[in-house]
């Protein structure tokens, strides 16, 4: 059932007479925000890459020209309301934004939020401007429901409650089912249910225990999930560490993982989405153990810990704390569950302890509040607040937060809720969850490493400013429309938490001018919070969280989600009309310019990243700058504690927690997971989840390449040997033959300078133009350097004449790094990491075909310029219509090139536009990358351990504690 918001009390109505005065900051007086933009019509067509079937089509939708095709596609498919093909169907972003914004403004007028009608109009324009310019977005339920005939549900996060009675347990199933049906998720703590080691009051028999009741809830979630086109059921189950059934709970999913492996080995289809995976239990929930400081200290001290009966509270069993902690970590190592939630830390920052303790969280662990409550979310796009001088515009950010928090609070006035209890608690405590996205991209653009003191200081000050301004506006709203209903009984506790936030802000040590400016505003905001809160109270019990920002991140064209670092340095970009092209993240050139690199250096580094997917040995890039380009996946992926330290820097400035998973490599040990959990507690996090690569069987299989094939061949050979078979193998030995150069041959001499060192190279070729010899002249005759170069030249020349391909030499000697290195006098090779690097790049340009050079990532200056202008290095004849696109076919690599070179340089689909604005449809080919996750796999040769999208079939990528699809915007349960 749904509950409508009840009207304001008489006290609120009286206090609301004055209303807020809204300042115009973003919009222009006399000009509607829509009129400041250029709008264009687009056709949105989505297909399933496996079947080729069109799953969605809407033509002529209207979006600002600044919005990417991906953003407009996701908004059209996910958020436009009305039946396709009818007049009721929304067909413009203007209609969508008006539907939401005008509903908010009307509710604000009705409930006394604005001092005058002019203030209401300014608020409308400011909110509209921020949305259409992608400065922030509300969470998905707002776009789904607000302004429609559906119930006006605005919350994405829910916490339920269950007691130790059959009525309550069955009601738990029902309430979860309704929430899942609506596409949202919920979490709850099942610790009130008595353990299997306690007796029933009625019959004296033994209780079933909470784990047994988890089976029914899991089956319900799986059934409701499978009834929809996308995965919907997202749930969190929490159990206190002192519950007598804690060991059974901890090992529940690990035992099921063992079952999955056994069934897989027996031939059953146990892949994600497989026909037999549904027979496995407990797969639809994230499990977390709620640990206390008492338990964690017992782990440190190596003492025992008491498990308490639910009915009497007495200790009925004592366990070794370290042994239980090891079992928790072992289970997480095996299947990524359970995570940990730190109970004392959570409740120490609780603003409403007089009402009740915080016992659980939503499925992604960022929303932590009272039982039977909900939270509506909104996230800001941090990169939008980066000024041209690469400093963060703290004042503009603060003004945006004020507008957004006001809108979020207004939404509770008209919102509907899935149960009466949730509606009552949410209206009485008015929990909000403002947050941000694009932190990783912002830090990179500012030249700050994610895992660095400067990066953490910047993130901490921004988070502090966001929450401080939010609570300041909440106090101002309390003055206008009254504090939340539960404030009076919790006033002392709420003000104590505000002082804790203020003290944490004072403890931040800034490191550069940009974060100092942000910190100064944050300090002023917290001073205002404490002062205004003492006078007026607060409108909201909670203000901020850091959510995954999956779908809405795409709506804002964010490079990174939530608090996450960049996923990878290369991505796919969709082209108008269909198809896609590989691009290097656009934040990278900005970061390089910020670090002082010259245009030709930036071009060389970006070209290298586009080829290799990482910055290691990039030409001219200083090693001390590598950390700035560290990513979540790839050759320079962040260490697990780098993620933990970033979360710890931001956590003291959040009302709730952070949705984030700490990723560990497959080689990680149980001890490393123990260390992550232990340090997370010590550093003051509220929750931690871990994921070890390839720890779960129910993931898409990845091609192991030559190693997998070799393993298979070895198994066949072993089987043959076991059977006693004797095989006679005829062995053919091929001896190399030297192909000598003719007495008279064509040669060329090239003079060069590398890093100030001069030299000469003479290369001779066979009659067919194939390179056959190289002579290098560096240093004075008779010197050691000259002798070494002569010997090296002879060795390379003989190798060439015996058939070693030039491509092999090029692949081995390019990117070799030693002094002298730096700028050259060759326009085709502007930067070189060593003399060897230059020589073999020059030889490749002189003697290899375009296709072979392209496979090695070596291009001339003319080809690089063409790529900047047309998106392709290859020459294109101007023969077609202006709107035509040409698809470049893959060229087979030369047969003599080593296998590792072919695999590393396999071409991706490249589309070459004849005009910048032109595009035509291109059909994706099965087996080639379609998302950034698959592209990263192709470049690095390693698997990205994430599920396939159930809507479009492409590989998803991590976003917070869940996954998001770049193709269609679907998430694995988080809105």
From TrEMBL:
Lineage start: Bacteria, Bacillati, Actinomycetota, Actinomycetes, Propionibacteriales
Family named by the database record: Belongs to the ribonucleoside diphosphate reductase class-2 family.
UniProt keyword annotation of Acetylation present: no
Function of the molecule: Catalyzes the reduction of ribonucleotides to deoxyribonucleotides. May function to provide a pool of deoxyribonucleotide precursors for DNA repair during oxygen limitation and/or for immediate growth after restoration of oxygen.
Cited Pfam families: Ribonuc_red_2_N, Ribonuc_red_lgC, TSCPD
Ranges annotated as spanning the membrane: none
Record-listed E.C. numbers: 1.17.4.1
Keywords, sorted A to Z: Cobalamin, Cobalt, Disulfide bond, DNA synthesis, Nucleotide-binding, Oxidoreductase
Broad EC category: oxidoreductase
Key word Disulfide bond present: yes
UniProt superkingdom: Bacteria
Gene3D superfamilies on file: 3.20.70.20
Substrates-to-products reaction catalysed: a 2'-deoxyribonucleoside 5'-diphosphate + [thioredoxin]-disulfide + H2O = a ribonucleoside 5'-diphosphate + [thioredoxin]-dithiol
Ribonucleotide reductase large subunit C-terminal domain mapped to chain residues: 155-691
Official protein name in the record: Vitamin B12-dependent ribonucleotide reductase
Ribonucleotide reductase class II vitamin B12-dependent N-terminal domain location: 43-134
Residue intervals of the TSCPD domain: 742-846
Named cofactor requirement(s): adenosylcob(III)alamin
């Amino acid at each position: 059932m749904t509950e409508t918001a009840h009207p304001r009390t008489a006290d609120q109505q009286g206090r609301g007479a004055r209303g807020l005065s809204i300042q115009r900051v973003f919009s222009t007086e006399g000009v509607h925000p829509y009129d400041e933009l250029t709008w264009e019509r687009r056709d949105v067509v989505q297909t399933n890459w496996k079947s080729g079937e069109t799953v969605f089509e809407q033509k002529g939708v209207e979006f600002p020209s600044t919005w990417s095709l991906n953003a407009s596609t996701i908004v059209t498919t996910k958020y436009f309301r009305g039946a396709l093909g009818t007049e009721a169907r929304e067909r413009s972003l203007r209609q969508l934004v008006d539907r939401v914004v005008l509903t908010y403004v009307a509710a604000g007028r009705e409930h006394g939020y604005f001092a005058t009608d002019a203030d209401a109009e300014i608020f409308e324009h400011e909110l509209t401007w921020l949305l259409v310019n992608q400065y922030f977005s509300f969470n998905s339920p707002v776009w789904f429901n607000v302004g429609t005939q559906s119930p006006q549900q605005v919350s994405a996060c829910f916490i339920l409650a269950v007691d130790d009675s059959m009525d309550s347990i069955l009601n738990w199933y029902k309430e979860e089912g309704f929430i899942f049906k609506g596409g949202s998720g919920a979490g709850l703590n099942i610790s009130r249910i008595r353990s299997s080691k306690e007796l029933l009051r009625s019959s004296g028999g033994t209780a079933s225990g909470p784990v047994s009741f988890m089976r029914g809830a899991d089956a319900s979630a799986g059934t409701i999930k499978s009834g929809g086109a996308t995965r919907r059921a997202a749930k969190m189950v929490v159990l206190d560490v002192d519950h007598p059934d804690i060991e059974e709970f901890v090992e529940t999913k690990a035992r099921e993982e063992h079952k999955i492996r056994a069934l897989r080995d027996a031939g059953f289809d146990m892949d994600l989405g497989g026909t037999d995976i549904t027979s496995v239990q407990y797969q639809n929930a994230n499990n977390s153990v709620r640990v206390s400081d008492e338990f964690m200290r017992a782990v440190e001290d190596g003492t025992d810990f008491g498990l308490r009966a639910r009915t009497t509270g007495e200790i009925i069993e004592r366990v070794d704390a370290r042994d239980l902690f090891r079992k928790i970590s072992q289970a997480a190592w095996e299947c990524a569950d359970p995570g940990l939630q730190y109970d004392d830390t959570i409740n120490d920052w609780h603003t409403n302890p007089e009402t009740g303790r915080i016992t659980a969280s939503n499925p992604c662990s960022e929303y932590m509040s009272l039982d039977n409550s909900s939270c509506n979310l909104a996230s800001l796009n941090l990169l939008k607040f980066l000024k041209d001088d690469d400093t963060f515009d703290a004042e503009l950010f603060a003004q945006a937060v004020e507008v957004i928090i006001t809108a979020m609070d207004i939404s509770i006035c008209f919102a509907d809720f899935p149960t009466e209890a949730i509606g009552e608690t949410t209206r009485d405590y008015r929990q909000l969850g403002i947050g941000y996205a694009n932190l990783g991209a912002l830090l990179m653009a500012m030249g700050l490493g994610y895992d660095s003191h400067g990066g953490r200081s910047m993130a901490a000050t921004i988070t502090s400013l966001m929450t401080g301004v939010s609570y300041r506006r909440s106090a101002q709203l309390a003055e206008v429309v009254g504090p939340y209903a539960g404030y009076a009984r919790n006033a002392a506790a709420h003000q104590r938490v505000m002082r804790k936030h203020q003290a944490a802000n004072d403890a931040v040590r800034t490191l550069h001018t940009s974060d100092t400016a942000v910190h100064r505003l944050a300090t002023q905001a917290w001073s205002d919070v404490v002062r205004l809160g003492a006078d007026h109270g607060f409108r909201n019990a909670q203000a901020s969280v850091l959510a995954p920002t999956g779908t809405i991140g795409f709506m804002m064209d964010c490079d990174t989600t939530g608090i996450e670092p960049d996923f990878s340095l290369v991505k796919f970009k969709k082209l108008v009309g269909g198809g896609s092209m590989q691009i290097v993240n656009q934040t990278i050139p900005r970061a390089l310019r910020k670090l002082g690199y010259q245009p030709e250096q930036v071009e060389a580094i970006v070209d290298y990243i586009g080829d290799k997917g990482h910055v290691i040995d990039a030409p001219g890039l200083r090693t001390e700058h590598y950390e700035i380009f560290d990513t979540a996946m790839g050759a320079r992926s962040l260490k697990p504690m780098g993620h933990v330290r970033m979360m710890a820097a931001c956590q003291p400035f959040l009302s709730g927690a952070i949705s984030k998973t700490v990723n560990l490599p497959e080689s990680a040990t149980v001890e490393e997971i123990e260390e992550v959990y232990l340090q997370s507690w010590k550093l003051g996090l509220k929750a931690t989840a871990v994921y070890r690569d390839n720890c779960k069987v129910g993931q898409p299989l990845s091609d192991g390449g030559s190693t997998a094939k070799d393993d298979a061949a070895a198994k066949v050979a072993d089987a043959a040997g076991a059977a006693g078979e004797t095989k006679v193998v005829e062995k053919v030995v091929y001896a190399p033959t030297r192909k000598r150069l003719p007495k008279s041959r064509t040669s060329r001499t090239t003079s060069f300078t590398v890093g100030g060192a001069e030299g000469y190279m003479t290369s001779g070729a066979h009659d067919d133009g194939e390179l056959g010899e190289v002579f290098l002249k560096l240093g004075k005759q008779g010197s050691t350097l000259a002798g070494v170069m002569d010997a090296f030249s002879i060795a390379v020349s003989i190798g060439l004449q015996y058939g070693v391909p030039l491509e092999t030499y090029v692949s081995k000697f390019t990117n070799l790094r030693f002094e002298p290195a730096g700028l050259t006098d060759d326009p085709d090779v502007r930067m070189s990491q060593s003399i060897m690097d230059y020589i073999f790049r020059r030889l490749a340009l002189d003697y290899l075909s375009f296709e072979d050079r392209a496979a090695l990532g070596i291009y001339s200056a003319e080809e690089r310029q063409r790529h900047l202008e047309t998106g392709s290095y290859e020459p294109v004849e101007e023969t077609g219509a202006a709107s035509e696109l040409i698809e470049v076919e893959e060229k087979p690599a030369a047969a003599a090139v080593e296998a590792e070179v072919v695999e590393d340089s396999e071409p991706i689909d490249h589309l070459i536009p004849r005009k910048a604005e032109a595009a035509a449809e291109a059909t994706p080919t099965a087996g080639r990358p379609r998302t950034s996750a698959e592209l990263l796999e192709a470049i690095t040769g390693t698997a990205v351990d994430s599920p396939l999208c159930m809507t479009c079939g492409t590989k998803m990528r991590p976003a917070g504690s869940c996954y998001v699809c770049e193709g269609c915007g679907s998430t694995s349960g988080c809105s």
